[in-house]
Request: fold
Amino acid sequence: MKKRVPLVITFVTGFIVIISFFIPHRPFGPLETDTLIWYSIILGFTLLIGVDSLVRLHVRQMRRRKEGWWYSIVFFTGFFYCLVIGIISIMRTPNPFQPGTIFFYGYKTILIPLQSTMFALLAFFVASASYRAFRARTLEATLLLIAAVIVMIGRVPAGYKLWTRLPGIANWVFNVLQMGAMRGIMIGVALGAVAMSLRLILGIERTYLS
Amino acid sequence: MIEEKRNFWDWINSIDRGIIYLIIGIVIILPILLGLKEEVQISPSVRSAYEMIESLDSNDVIIISIDYDPASMPELQPMLKAILRHAFEKDVKVIMMVFWPLGLPIGTEGLEEVAKEYGKVYGEDYVNLGYRPGDRAVMIDMGKEIRNFFRTDVNDILLDSHTMMRNVHNYNDIALIVGLEAGRFGEFWVQYVGSRYNQRIVLGVTGVMAAETYPYLQSGQIEGLIGGLKGAAEYETLIEKPGFGLTGMAAQSWAHIAIVMFIIIGNIGYFMTRRK
Amino acid sequence: MILLLALAFSISAKDTPDDGGGSITVNVYNIPEGTARIELSRLEKGDMLYKEAGLIPIFKGECDDASVVDGIGYLYRGKAIAKDTFYIAEMEGFVTSSPQWFNKSRITVLIFLILFGSVVLTYIQLAKKNPEGLFIRKLPALDAIDEAVGRSTEMGKPVLFVPGLEGITDAGTLASLTILEMVGKKVAEYGSRVIHPNFDPIVMTTAQETLKTAFAEAGRPDAFNKDDVFYLTYEQFGFAAGVDGIMLRERPGAIFLQGYFYAESLILAETGYSIGAIQIAGTNATTQLPFFVAACDYVLLGEEMFAASAYISREPRLLGSIKGSDLAKVVLLFMIGAGVIFGTIAGIAKQGGNPTYMQIFNKMLEFLAKGAK
Reply:
């Protein structure tokens, strides 16, 4: 019973959503939009569960004085700062993100630099990963290496200066070779997702139920 | 001597990551500090995007969707400003909306900055709808009536009180959608709006996503594609208004060359140590 | 003069096809040169006066009037306004809107779904009758789970499982939960620990239940620690920073990066490499696959993730569905190949002065592309 009821719910819901894709007549047609809206509403409430989990984690770390517990103080500082400042900003103006609000000040001075820093790490990691990974160990690895070098140089202005035809070759590698492979993987992923979804709806795949 | 040589090749084969990071840092920062600029060749995808906006008439209305956050700002903010400059130059009306809430302030900042440059008036020449949760539901329902989700703008002012919004109700009244994408929303625009409502779409995406988005351009599902910082630089070149896109090109060139040099050095080290 | 031009400038309307009702599509033709805007007005049957119904975009020449009521007749009038003059176009008969029971533009999707579903179900039935006859090639990434968890246990380190940055509705996330169950069982058997930081709270609650069940099935329900499955943040780089921090502090021996990832994929993979952990990645994000291939020890490429549950359990029904989707892929392959050959022949024939084949080819493409609406 414990497993059967969720399976029936999954089957009925999945079936209804599928047929609503093909039947525009009420009540099926608007179902697509309605289910998306319901999902957004549920997600909003589940964020509270997430926040609860996170707060409990840090309270536990502080109580047990685990290594690095003082970072939990940093967490609570940030958490309450955003909460309090956000509420004050909403009370004062309809758009808390408006330039001039305290919330926007925090966004500009803390969030933007932090996010930009994390994203900037990618530039360094791409270099170290490329240095390590692009070794001509096998024929396939050599082809990958050659393609990577052609595209990396060809798609920046320096490539045109080195050889005027290089950007054209890089574009060909990108638009023809790479595109074919990308499309193949996308088709495979899409078919795999459809098969997985069918298995879920029909109750063949049950791991999500536990 | 031979022992020393072997150690040298071993070192070449496994250069410390710190050295790689230091060199990459230098080759990126130096061109920006020196103010170096590089000319770019215009790619067909960016030219298509440019020509799409160029073909619009004054008083046509476009939607610009901000679907990125500060992390992707370096690539997409220059695109936003270039497109806004182009649109305002042609007296095209702009509606901005946001699906990534953290993108709202930076989108607003870019919009207000460029609008001020061209003396545009809020409510008459541009409107900021802000953010609404629901992503795909919002996209689909806007095809019936924008006011179903956006009764008011970002400042809580009724849409109908803005002169430019009086005759704008759904995608029928929108000449073009420009999506600036750091995630999956570009796909959603194409799947839920482009196909259903026959809506013309131009996408501006981060460099890594350009590969995934090209099939949509090749199949004609989007009208143009601006990919990464280079795409932004190309667009700035086309509108003859250089910005951060072009400034970043020198840094990007040098960084790519540095990475290729590391790859070559690494392979030399690999082959020399393999001989042992 | 205006009368002649008004005859050229014309308007027609019809019930918007393939919709749920309440909409009429209005088209205008031969828009006069210099038209600044086209005003649309509408007369309801029984009324005496036309009412404003919006503007028709000149670049499209058509619009959907979505403010009508089903069953009521409407007449439309278009007024093309140029600089010093205007042109009127009127319809003759009333048009009504009505909802349709089937969206004909999606017929290709329905055909595909029925065919694909039939193939998958057929293979599932065949698999039940002859489970030994189904071959699936080796997936090194899944074979390495045992090795990874074992190595981690020997080193006395925990296992880190990162489920990606999408919600429970994403197929990749569901596949990652399947893999999580397998990893959970191994971890329980070896008496180790699995840390599971989450981006989405719904995924967190599902993962807690999945691991709880996995530990119970392995006979170690007491070993499951709910605190090891927690929510981090709903922000992309905040999540990446948090996971990196966990990697550098906890020093896991094995890292599983399974799910849908965005730009942070390389940050996670490189940090994992730097601490010397064995990394098994799997994603349906095609843009991130190259980064995982470059930085991780084993990678499940796209659809290989979806085959994980079938591969490990070897359950006939699951294996059958994999075979079914493989067959569908082969069929698609042949269709693409046939299309390419036919398209090439049609192109050559058109250049040689015979456009018939190209017309047939275009009709076929149009029919197949219909399903995209």
Remarks:
- Residues 2-36+252-274 of chain B form one domain.
